[in-house]
Amino acid sequence: MKIAIQGISACFHEMAAREYFGNSVTPVECMTFQQLCESVKNKSADFGVMAIENSIAGSLLQNYALLMKYGFNVIGEVYLNIQMNLMALPGQKIEDLHTVQSHPIALSQCSEYLWNLPHVNWVEIEDTALAAKDIFDHHKIGVAAVANLLSAERYGLEVLEKRIETHPQNFTRFLIISNDKKKVEGANKASTCLQLKHENGSLAKVLNIFSENNINLTKIQSVPIVGKPYEYKFHIDLEWKEYTDFSTSIEAINAYTTSSIIMGEYKKGTYELL
Q1: Would you list the DSSP string of 125-189?
Q2: For 77, what's the count of Cα atoms within 13 Å in the CB-facing half-sphere?
Q3: What pLDDT, on a 0 to 100 scale, did the predictor assign at position 273?
Q4: Segment 224-252, tens digit of pLDDT
Q5: pTM of the entire predicted model
Q6: Which residues contact 142 (CB under 8 A, 6 or more apart)?
């Protein structure tokens, strides 16, 4: 099964793909999220795995826009605990380092540890796994990468320090996207995109309907409507115990929306705090 990922082999997106689909997946490497979407659209990949939010860095707003642009169906989600590690060519020691390289968000999420290495410069790379591969490919002495353990294994690097992230409760939520609508048995969560009537109380009325029907909101994200300054659409993720509660809610909110799109119904993912 071919799965489009953002990044190269051994990146966190591949780890998320393996978590959801199993270890037999073949990653389709995409250096941007737009390329990921194109790979799913043109069927170079069977499905895509796309990060949508991080528990520390927040939402990836551009990815909400891409999901709407391409009209993909969300068929699942997976949460991944983001664990950062310092790695270099075998035989290197921390005191030998002069540079550490990784994705800028990875560097920022390890800032407390890295600030304690005043002799080390920070270099930004577009992907954590690419930072590890670059050291291997060019045999960079004195350079370390911040990446996951799969990257160290895949590119023959030695882990100098494990778990250097500042906050261990660091999770990224990934959506599983498909070109085609797919009925998911046992679905208990949905991703929606609502455009509300631009009048007083519209959002409050919609939220009250969800509350009255025992719907739990796990995410609400406002996104500007292009061409309509200071008007917004809302990406809302919903959970339910009884599907009829969800369907009743969706029907009832139509009185207060100008557009109501169900982006996908799926089984909610789980995660455990460390």
Answers
A1: -S-HHHHHHHHHHTT-TTEEEEE-HHHHHHTTPEEEES---S-S--EEEEEEEESS----TT--E
A2: 26
A3: 86
A4: 988 888 888 999 999 999 999 999 999 99
A5: 0.94
A6: 92, 96, 97, 98, 99
Domain housing 210: 189-266
Residues 71 and 123 in one domain: no
**pLDDT per position as a tens digit, 127-161:** 999 999 999 999 999 999 999 999 999 999 999 99
- Residue 269 phi/psi, 5-degree rounding, is -80, 165
| Segment holding 243, helix H or strand E | helix 243-253
Contact call for residues 252 and 146 (beta carbons, < 8 A): no
- Convert the pLDDT of each residue in 104-114 to its tens digit: 999 999 999 99
Contact 45, 29 (CB under 8 A): no
Stretches where the chain sits below pLDDT 70 are: none
Of the candidates 125, 143, 178, which is a domain's last residue? 178
Tell me how far apart the 2 most distant CA atoms of the chain are, in Å.
66
Give the number of domains in the chain: 3
Residue 202 CB partners (closer than 8 Å, separation 6+): 196, 256, 257
Nearest Cα neighbor of 49 from 24, 82, 71, 27 is 27
Give CA separation, 93 vs 7, 86, 88, 116, 141, in Å.
27, 11, 8, 15, 10
